[in-house]
Specification:
Keywords: Signal. It contains four helices and four strands, in the order αβααβββα. With 180 residues, it is of the alpha+beta class. The chain has a single domain, classed as Rossmann fold. It has a four-stranded mixed β-sheet, with helices on one face. β3 and β4 form a beta hairpin. The N and C termini lie far apart (47 Å).
């Protein structure tokens, strides 16, 4: 068998294998709604005094990111539970509201499920890096709102990318525990 025929045979084998492995009725989630809650009561925290709009900002951003999956009367409900907003692990933020950690759970509930069909942990942190620059250049540290925007954007991206990859057949109640 010539080299070209071997390549064609191998390509045909990979194509057939990948087609057989692909779910026949793979379907993305049809999401009814997205809810974001901030559940910081487990620890002494003041982040919501400094950033009271964070749940609303995350709701808007995540809903926008999942717009292609949203359907009126959809079968799945996404709940994001923000459980930590801290600065280097300290949950009592300073007067400027600086924080560099944002953590929480994403729960996916579906039709006829009493428990979430899937849950995912999202944990993010940001750091200011020390930068060396020539003496004729001035480096300005980012404003606190830049950390807020960066963490909200990164958290949103992580939630949207994780949820967007899910397929309905992965969320069968009997198999939900295996996919958590």
């Amino acid at each position: 068998m010539s080299f070209h025929k071997k390549q064609s045979a191998i390509l045909a084998l990979f194509t057939a294998t990948s087609l057989m492995a692909a779910p026949i009725c793979a379907a993305p989630l049809d999401i009814a709604d997205v809810t974001v809650v901030t559940n910081l009561e487990a620890v002494e925290a003041n982040a919501l005094d400094r950033w009271p709009e964070i749940a609303g900002d995350l709701t808007i951003a995540i809903t926008s990111g999942l717009a292609d999956h949203l359907q009126e009367g959809g079968d799945y409900h996404i709940t994001v539970d923000v459980t930590e907003i801290s600065n280097a692990g300290t949950t009592l933020l300073g007067n400027d509201g600086a924080f560099n950690q944002l953590n929480g759970w994403v729960y996916i509930d579906g039709p006829d499920s009493e428990e979430p069909l899937k849950k995912m942990w999202i944990e993010l942190s940001a750091e200011e890096g020390a930068t060396l620059a020539p003496s004729d250049i001035t480096i300005v540290a980012p404003k606190r709102i830049a950390f807020y925007d960066a963490l909200v954007t990164a958290f949103t991206y992580k939630v949207v990318s994780e949820v967007s990859e899910l397929q309905t057949e992965w969320l069968v109640p009997e198999q939900a525990e295996e996919n958590t």
